[in-house]
Model the fold of this input.
Amino acid sequence: MRGVASLGCFGGAVGALMVSLASAGELKDKAAFEVIADPADRSVAIFEEMGRVLQHPRCVNCHPAGESPLQGREMKIHEPPVQRGPADFGVTGMTCTTCHMSRNVEPAGVPGDPAWHVAPKSMIWEGKTLGEICEQIKDPERNGGRDLAAMHKHMAEDSLVGWGWNPGGTREPVPGTQARFGELFALWMEAGAHCPS
Done:
C-alpha cells in the first residue's frame, strides 16, 4: 500500500508539473499525454488541451450564436454593427471585406485574412460545452462536410484559423502555435477522437 500511496503523490506531482509547463501562452506537447495509458482518457485529455484554443474568445468571436460576430476578450458585439448575412459574409453594402482586407491593417487596427468571414450557424461554438464543440467538429453535417483528416488539415493549415495565433496589434493570440495545435489534433485522432463528457 505504501508504494501505491507514493505513486499517488508522484502522480500528483506529475500533474502539477504538467500544469506548470503549459503556461497560459503554451500548449502541452505529446510527451505530456504519454503518461496517460488508456487511449480514450488520453484522447479526452488532448481535446481538453485543444479546448484552451477552441474556447478562447479569439476563436469563439467568429463562431457566434447570434447574427453578429463578437470582438475582443470581452466578446462584445462587433462595432460597427454588422450582420452574418445569408452566406456568412455580411450583407449587401457591408460585407466582411468592406473593412477586413487580406491581412491585418495595423495603423487602423483592423484584422484581416483573404477568407475573412463569420463561421456558419452549423459551426456555432458560443455557449457550447467543450464536449458539444468536440461532437460538432466530428460531425460532417456541422463542420462543413469534412471528415477528421480534412478537419485536421483545416485546423493545422487554414490561414483564417491561423489568424488566431497571429492577430496583430495588441490582440491576445490563442495559446501555443498552429503547428502545435495541429500536432494535438493528430494525436487526438490517433487516440480515437473521444470527446469530453
